[in-house]
Amino acid sequence: MAKLYFSYSTMNAGKSTLLLQASYNYRERGMRTVLFIAAFDDRGGAGRIASRIGLDCEAIPFRPEDDLFQSLENLKAEGEIACAFVDEAQFLTESQVWQLARVADRLNVPVMTYGLRTDFRGKLFPGSAALLAIADELREVRTICHCGRKATMVVRVNDEGRVIREGAQIEVGGNEKYVSYCRRHWDDVMGREAPD
């Protein structure tokens, strides 16, 4: 039976690299994979998943209104799919997460999603919240804070490197815009006060 997987972490943990490596392993054995990436994330080029270490691959861009179950059902009619992969899964809608669960349950195609768990304010993304709730398997991809502890949070910075505490939840960027921290140092740099 196929499963829905969610591999999550902060920025710069190597999620895209892991996705591309896993897809390559299937393809090397002659198996077909289908890759998706959020349409507005064009850091690697439109419709491309790219890693910081230089790996990249063509992917199908998805938008909030897209029906991913229908897309994969149509693609499966053209030939067997060994696995479906989704990069930047935090940008999925809750409905799309359920569509991907149906892909695993009804089309018997494993779905591996990779994304951030929380935004720069420490809040769950809607796609991540749905994946944390219904994925069959959760996998944490680890990276480290400057102190050596496991990084679990991310901070958004401006062009001068100053911490940004407010703003839109979604703002695409990489090392120039985001820094990963352990919870303690995230709390320090965000200047948060303990709740009453």
TrEMBL record:
> Could you name the domain of life of the organism this protein comes from?
Bacteria
What does the UniProt keyword field contain? ATP-binding, Cytoplasm, DNA synthesis, Kinase, Metal-binding, Nucleotide-binding, Transferase, Zinc
Q: Where is the active site?
A: E88 (proton acceptor)
What are the EC numbers? 2.7.1.21
Catalytic activity, as annotated: thymidine + ATP = dTMP + ADP + H(+)
- Where located? Cytoplasm
- Record-listed Zn(2+) binding positions: C145, C147, C182, H185
Residue sites binding ATP per the record: S9, T10, M11, N12, A13, G14, K15, S16, D87, E88, A89, Q90
TM regions (residue ranges): none
Report whether Transferase shows up as a keyword of the record: yes
Q: Which GO terms describe its molecular function?
A: thymidine kinase activity
Could you say which protein family the record assigns here? Belongs to the thymidine kinase family.
What protein am I looking at? Answer: Thymidine kinase
Q: Which organism is it from?
A: Hoeflea ulvae
